[in-house]
Structures are given as structure tokens and as C-alpha cells.
Amino acid sequence: FKCIIMETKIKKILEKRNMTQTDLFNAIKSNCNNYLGKDVISKIVNGKKENYEIFTLLKICVALNVTPNEIIEKNQFINTQLKK
């Protein structure tokens, strides 16, 4: 049994900015008409939810003032989804 702790790009951005997931939740809530649940944010930040809607991605981007490329886990996708 292996326990893999995934350090997502979003998690790194939050840590670098000294932001919590609640801070991200509040930033999304104050910038977007529809916001994300704290449970969804937690799953995304911790790498437990990797396949989510583009609008969810864009809400996070707006809240953090980043581009999708800065938070998409492209290598993870390549490693798990592309045929070799």
C-alpha cells in the first residue's frame, strides 16, 4: 500500500501566496456569479478530482488571476490518458 501525496499546481500557488482553500473559496465567491463548494475545491486542490468542467477551471483562474496553463496538470494527463 502506497500513500501518494500529490502536490498540485493549485496547491503550490496557494502555498506561495499564503492562501487557504477557504481563501480560494471566498475569492471565487466574490468574483463569480456561481461559486464552487468547499468540498469540490478541496478535492481539486488535493488532486483527488482531476477531471472537472472548464467553467470550474475558469472560476479558479479568475479567483487566482492565473491562466489555465498555470494550473492544469498536463503531465498527469499525458501519463494517464495518452496511448503509448
What does this structure look like?
- There is one protein chain.
- With 84 residues, this protein is mainly alpha-helical.
- It has six helices and no strands.
- The chain has helices spanning 9-16, 21-31, 38-45, 54-64, 68-71, 74-81.
- Helix 2 (21-31) crosses helix 3 and helix 2 crosses helix 4.
- The model has no long low-confidence stretch (mean pLDDT 88).
Question: What's the layout of helices and strands?
Answer:
Elements: H1 9-16, H2 21-31, H3 38-45, H4 54-64, H5 68-71, H6 74-81
Helix pairs in contact: 2-3, 2-4
Determine the fraction of residues in helical runs and give it as a percent range: 55-70%
Mean pLDDT: 88
**Which structural class is indicated by helix and strand composition?**
mainly alpha
Beta-strand level of the residues, as a percent range? under 5%
Question: Low-confidence spans: pLDDT under 50, at least 5 residues?
Answer: none
Largest sheet: none
For the secondary structure, the number of strands is 0
Label this structure with key terms.
mainly alpha, 6 helices
Summarize the structure.
With 84 residues, this protein is mostly helical. 60% of the residues lie in helices and 0% in strands.
